Structures are given as C-alpha cells and as structure tokens.
Amino acid sequence: MAGSMRSTSEESNDRLVLQQPSSARESNRAWLQRLGAPGGVKLDENGIILLGGSSVASFRIRVAQSSMRHDLVPSYWSHCGILLGDGRFATVPLSPGSDVSAVPGTNGVDLAKLDDFDDPKRYPNVAVIRFARKHDDVRDHINRVQADRSVIDLPAMMLRWLGFVWGVTGAVNPLTEGIGLPSAAFVETIFAMVGYELTPGLASRSSCPEAIWQAAKWWQEFYEKTIAADAGTQENRRYEGMTPEGYFVIRQPAAAIAV
Asked: Which sign, positive or negative, has the C-alpha torsion 193, 197, 199, 201?
C-alpha cells in the first residue's frame, strides 16, 4: 500500500459543502459559475480543482488511489489543477495533446481550458477547494516549474503513470512506489514553494488527488493550528493560508467507465 498518515480528527471538515447540480443536464461550467459567496470559494487564483473522470484512463487512476484509503475504495478523483480565474487552470495532463514534443519544454505543465471538462458524463465529479486566501506569486511559481525540471521532473512521473494506465507489461501502480500523479505533484509543489504543506505527512512527489481531498476533508485541525502559529507573521506576506473550504458534487460515487 502507498504510505500516508491518517488524521486523528473524528469530524470531517464542514466547510466542504455538497452543492448539488440544478438539474441532471447542468454542465460543469454552469455548476462552477453558481459557486461562491463573499469570503467563500471563488473561481480565482489559488483555488484547487479536483475532477473525477469516467474514461478508461480515469477509471484506472481512480482505482489506483484506493491504496491511499483505509477502506480501499476507489477515489472520486482522477485529475487536479490550480484555477487561474480566466476559464483556465494549470495542470499536468497524462495526455499532452497533439504535440508530444512540447512536453520537455513545458515540463508537462499545461494551461487547460475548463470548457474541455464541461461534460458531466465525461467528468461527473468536481470539487473546488481553497487552501489559501492569497497566493500572490502563484503564476510566477507555475512559470518556474514549467521552465525548470530540476524543481520537479514531471515528465518522468508521466511516463510511469502512462505505463500503468496503458497496462504495459511489468508496470505497477506508481503510488505503491511513492510516485504521485503528476497533476497532484505539480499542485503540491506550487504550494510547497511558499512553505505550505498541502497534504500533511505525505511528500509532494507522492501526492494524488485523493490525498488532497483527504487533507481538505480531515486535516482541518492541522490547518487551524498552522494558521494560529502564523497569525503574527502574516503582515507583508504574499501568501496566507486558511482552513480549507469549498464545494463539491459527486455524480458518480463508484468508479465506472462511461461507454
């Protein structure tokens, strides 16, 4: 099994709110546009988006993350990224589009369009979570990771996951060897660059969407203590953490493939 620390909290984070779709036909973009309130989740910089897909690749990724759960149930999630507030989010997809030669020059980082994830049949599960009230340098950090593979070598991680997703002979679940899903490792690294521990007890390079979800859901006491410890040092800082809060919709609780 993949190693991770479990929270001692007995209560889940009530700041993660289930927001049901307005109808069975509501698109993901329409659902996202209904979110947010003063002081709450907004589609701006530093919000994290989690997506759970229904393709064969998404199914295998969701099942792979069962090793991160004590009940061994497949994850709701197969992909994640950082919202940029302009209809895009920064992420590291396993399918890099039509030009695979672009991967080395971008370290696998892509500015994806939310419109490409609009179909609720292809992406039935969505969550938007904020871990920071401000992260003023988020775009600079994204640009740095995109340009410098010495920070984290995302293409190397992509290769391991592609071998597993494609069923290559000898390929094992990368999480069992401490190799995180590239999109989650990227998100973790961006937050680690300002000293923020996104998933307590788990190395950034070992992260996955399920680990981020579990952290937001069960580690609120850890974040509250961290915020209290930093309370006297927030002035003039370009980063400010917060107790995770957000919205989610789960249209497909059990991992399945939509034909």
From this structure: positive
Alpha helices in 1-137 (DSSP H): 28-33, 56-64, 103-106
- pLDDT exceeds cutoff 50 at 82: yes
> Does residue 27 contact residue 118 with C-beta atoms inside 8 Å?
yes
* Total-model pTM: 0.92
Averaged over 33-48, what is the pLDDT? 67
Give the strands of the sheet with 239-250, arranged side by side: 16-18, 239-250, 125-135, 47-52, 79-83, 88-91, 110-113
Q: What is the C-alpha to C-alpha distance for residues 214 and 157, in angstroms, rounded to an integer?
A: 22
DSSP state for residue 36 in the 8-state scheme: -
Tally of helices (H runs) and strands (E runs) in the chain: 8, 7
Angle between helices 182-192 and 154-165 (to 10 degrees): 150
